[in-house]
């Protein structure tokens, strides 16, 4: 991609925000070049990306949510002397990526074992990954040796992100070491700490692929040290609802593949992906229709919460969880009335806040009697409601609940997410 489409219309005279991908931009959509400026390819400095934010939904300024700067140069090794390997010379795979995708492949990967990678991911994101995560990366390298993160773009429209950024070298200890902000990396508006995004829709995928822009897939684990998470999905532009998809990433991608075909998105690349997915899964005895873990979890859910996927806490002899004093419907109605007031001062003084304060007092009693699930449920509900006025209460409740439940790492995640909570799609916290 030696030339960029010319900027047209009135936008040509305006100073445009810099493209988040900088010199590594691989997009071809003309609209993208109307909305973002791009540095000359010869430019070597890393430029700050635009961070989408909404003044209506967050009180943070853009400077508070600026992603970390990747200080690493291409030929430089980090403090742990991680070795890197160069781009593969095999350009003859069936899933030959676009010319622009080859620019991304210049980001080289550290050579580590899956165990070493898992330890690194846990150090950066505070959770460990299941075996199917690493197996899927190997599968994607088979489909697209030069650019495994984009192996699904031309067939399904998905780009691998989040923990996969560690495998690719996009995220490393150097650019992740900045006051925990990396914990908000690819964290969509309604993703609770239990939700870890690993696949997002690539906006510039084939026009025939019909996917909502902010639809995303991720692992969901009820405890930070759970190494058998399930796969879920969410579209924050529609609602906070989290839907269970499958037991593993292969099964989830297979479901998305079948869904895509049912929407009339059939193409040669999709057929090839299906063939290779089935073959690879069979070789490693991976069940691509597995939903046993999802079904078992459903039976353990204490309360559905606003996101409908619910919370799970251990209850022993009726100790561990107690119900909120109001139904989800009544609670939402109260929150709606409070949020509809003109400003935060009015909201704080509203008599409606007495219901919220009463619930908070009941939660204190519940905590004293070890029914920690009540605080978790109310905190998740306030988080899912999404209005910034309730962020402070949500953070207090969730950090408290996660601490009492020995899920402290989730407390660190929610703390960073609410401090850097943003709407939209461009949610990477690194350049």
TrEMBL record:
Q: What is this protein called?
A: PBZ-type domain-containing protein
What is the protein's major site of localization?
A: nucleus
Q: List all Low complexity biased stretches.
A: 53-66
Say yes or no: keyword Nucleus present. yes
Compartments it resides in: Chromosome; Nucleus
Pfam families noted in UniProt:
HPF1, zf-CCHH
The record's section on InterPro entries has: APLF_PBZ (IPR019406), HPF1 (IPR019361)
The upper taxonomy is:
Eukaryota, Metazoa, Ecdysozoa, Arthropoda, Chelicerata
Family stated for the protein in its record: Belongs to the HPF1 family.
Residue ranges, annotated region (Disordered): 32-96
């Amino acid at each position: 991609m030696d030339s960029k489409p010319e900027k047209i219309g009135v936008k040509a005279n305006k100073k445009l925000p810099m493209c988040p991908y900088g010199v590594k931009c691989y997009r071809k959509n003309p609209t993208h070049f109307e909305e973002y400026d791009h540095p000359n390819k010869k430019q070597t400095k890393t430029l700050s990306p635009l961070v989408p934010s909404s003044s209506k939904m967050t009180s943070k300024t853009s400077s508070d949510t600026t992603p970390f700067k990747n200080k690493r140069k291409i030929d430089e090794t980090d403090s742990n002397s991680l070795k890197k390997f160069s781009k593969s010379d095999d350009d003859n795979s069936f899933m030959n990526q676009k010319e622009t995708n080859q620019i991304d492949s210049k980001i080289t990967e550290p050579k580590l074992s899956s165990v070493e990678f898992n330890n690194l991911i846990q150090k950066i994101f505070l959770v460990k990954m299941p075996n199917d995560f690493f197996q899927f990366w190997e599968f994607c390298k088979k489909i697209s040796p030069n650019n495994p993160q984009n192996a699904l773009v031309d067939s399904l429209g998905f780009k691998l992100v989040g923990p996969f950024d560690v495998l690719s070298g996009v995220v490393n200890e150097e650019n992740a070491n900045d006051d925990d902000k990396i914990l908000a990396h690819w964290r969509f508006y309604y993703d609770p700490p239990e939700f870890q995004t690993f696949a997002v829709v690539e906006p510039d995928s084939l026009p025939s692929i019909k996917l909502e822009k902010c639809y995303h897939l991720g692992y969901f684990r009820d405890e930070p040290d759970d190494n058998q998470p399930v796969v879920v999905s969410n579209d924050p532009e529609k609602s906070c609802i989290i839907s269970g998809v499958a037991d593993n990433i292969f099964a989830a991608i297979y479901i998305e593949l079948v869904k895509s075909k049912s929407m009339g998105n059939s193409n040669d690349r999709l057929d090839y992906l299906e063939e290779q997915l089935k073959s690879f899964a069979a070789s490693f005895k991976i069940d691509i229709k597995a939903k046993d873990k999802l079904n078992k979890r459903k039976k353990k859910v204490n309360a559905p919460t606003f996101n409908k996927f619910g919370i799970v806490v251990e209850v022993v002899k009726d100790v561990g969880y107690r119900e909120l004093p109001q139904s989800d419907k009544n609670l939402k109605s109260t929150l709606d009335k409070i949020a509809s007031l003109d400003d935060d001062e009015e909201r704080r003084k509203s008599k409606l806040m007495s219901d919220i304060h009463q619930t908070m007092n009941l939660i204190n009693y519940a905590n004293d009697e070890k029914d920690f699930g009540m605080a978790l449920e109310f905190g998740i509900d306030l988080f899912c409601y999404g209005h910034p006025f309730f962020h402070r209460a949500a953070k207090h409740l969730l950090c408290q609940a996660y601490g009492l439940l020995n899920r402290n790492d989730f407390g660190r995640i929610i703390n960073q997410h609410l401090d850097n909570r943003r709407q939209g799609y461009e949610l990477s916290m690194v350049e």
